Give the backbone structure.
Amino acid sequence: KETQAPSLGKDSADTVIIGGGCVGVSLAYHLAKAGLKNVVLLEKSELTAGSTWHAAGLTTYFHPGINLKKIHSYSIKLYEKLEEETGQAVGFHQPGSIRIASTPTRVDEFKYQMTRSGWHPIEQYLITPEKVQELFPLLNMDMVLAGLYNPGDGHIDPYSLTMALAAGARKYGAQLNYPVQVTNLNARSDGTWEVETPLGIIQAKRIVNTAGFWAREIGKMIGLQHPLIPVHHQYVVTSSIPEVKALNTELPVIRDLEGSYYLRQERDGLLFGPYESEEKMKLQDSWVTNGVPPGFGKELFESDLDRIMEHIEAAMEMVPVLKNADIVNTIAGPITYSPDILPMVGPHQGVRNYWVAIGFGYGIIHAGGIGKYLSDWILEGEPPFDLIELDPNRYGKWTTTEYTAAKARESYGFNNIVGYPKEERFAGRPTERTSGLYDLLKSKCSMGFHAGWEQPHWFYKPGDETGYKPSFRRTNWFDPVGREYKQVMEKVGVIDLSPFGKFKVKGTDSVKLLDHLFANVVPKVGSTNISHMLTPRGKVYAELTVSQLYPGEFMLVTGSGSELHDLRWIEEEVMRGGYKVKIENMTDEMGVLGIAGPYARQILQKLTSEHLSDDSFKFLQSRHLKLSDIAVTAIRISYTGELGWELYHRKEDSVALYSAIMEAGQKEGIDNFGTYALNALRLEKGFRAWGAEV
């Protein structure tokens, strides 16, 4: 280990990276390698302190999602070449890995995952029990129905990996300074930062928070509450096992999904790490309330084998040679969890030139790919591909500390849960973000979670099997959704669309700004269009509907999941171009009801004296009206592809508006519909969804 007298070396930098774990060091390596001058990393104790040094170091090509597989894949390809490039050994083992299916549902899940593997060039195979046994001869085969096999998977030594990335970063000109603690951050009016340390101040064009479980403390310096919480994770290392020692080749890593643990070879013994259930797992919540203890760096927690005993027993059952093995080491250390286990990566809304790469529950496999992804984004002004699931702005004011803790418990316990399509998770719900109709509708339907909101997925009728019943096959919602689909096609339906992101834009330069932002003409007063914000390379960054309500005053509407993602991009362009505009986020104050189907006009006409005929209220027109004396902004648009309107109104008027419409539609047989039916209708109409087909 090298020792050095701490120094700042310089008083200004292009990019200051705060935190010297594998993620921060990877970012320094990638930025410097891409040619960025003046990259400075500050680490308060030593490189790898925190969560990196004690990680189990697993590397896998597999991810249940689609976009993150690219990150995993890049990391592995990078790690394969690092030693040659930097001269530093990284201890990379690639014996492959096998996920074990021991229930029929798990076999369904593997088949589902195999249908998605064609998106990626990586190898993935569904293998028979015989093949599983051939690759891992020490398994108890009574429980094995199938395996999901990824050649090239394995594990790496996290300390050596970080040191190799550090050597590379220095080779390309980055400065890695430690021990240097960041004590304060000051935002300057020109968008640059002053980074305060005991050794002086560095002026930085941008800062990147890669501080691991210290990330909350860094966020607090600038008034942000990052939703992160440290989790206790334990893994166990055994002494030498004769049966392991006798093998000619290294065993593949196995993941016993029902037993909820991973297991790999460590020299001539085995190492295994469980993910215990949400009731048993342990959070370090005192760090959230009182801050991380100032000196904590390369410390560990006290181990607690009782907490993981059922997993140890499951592992002995699956790998019988463990029964006679001695435990020589138990590592219990902090890893940081975000509410949904996924990290937060990218620029942060509401603060200029402040970026994050935090909340990594699996930092080793993500470090390489995220370093590259973020470096590309910083240097080119746009992300190389869509990873909105990691957007730090997917959380907001509704993400309380209680919510974060409840979700982290659930996410940790659900680490190896079956990954169904249309998955819902119920911890921490509902948040404070409920629409005006939530109390009225919650007992009548199956609700889904969208960016903090509860939104009806499908509605119950007498005789339906209610509740959330996930499956890889047709399940309880299939027929009811068909019923709702028919309702909208043949009669008329009402849907709660309140979770939409809604912004008002007005001011001298509003037309100029929107003309610059969108690859479309600016709609005239009383008109609406669907417009796309494009990146410098012409890729679609976002899709919004734009309406000019009054001269120079616009309403922009986006999907619930893109609210702050889109707002950040707009605010950035406003700052960059010096536009004189005022932007107001109306998402939480404004309710939205959709009404669609052949009788939609007939019903609304009963509630207003305004003419709604096709001549007087055309498709993609917007206007202010009173429906049953309630003020609404009505847009003639419907994602269903049927005749319909979206009705924007004050959230406190939602119940009255909904009741008036339902009352007026009795004769026409009006009814509710949810987002599942909406999705089926828009697919048949050929409307593409940003984030799905686009």
Notes: The chain has a mean pLDDT of 96.
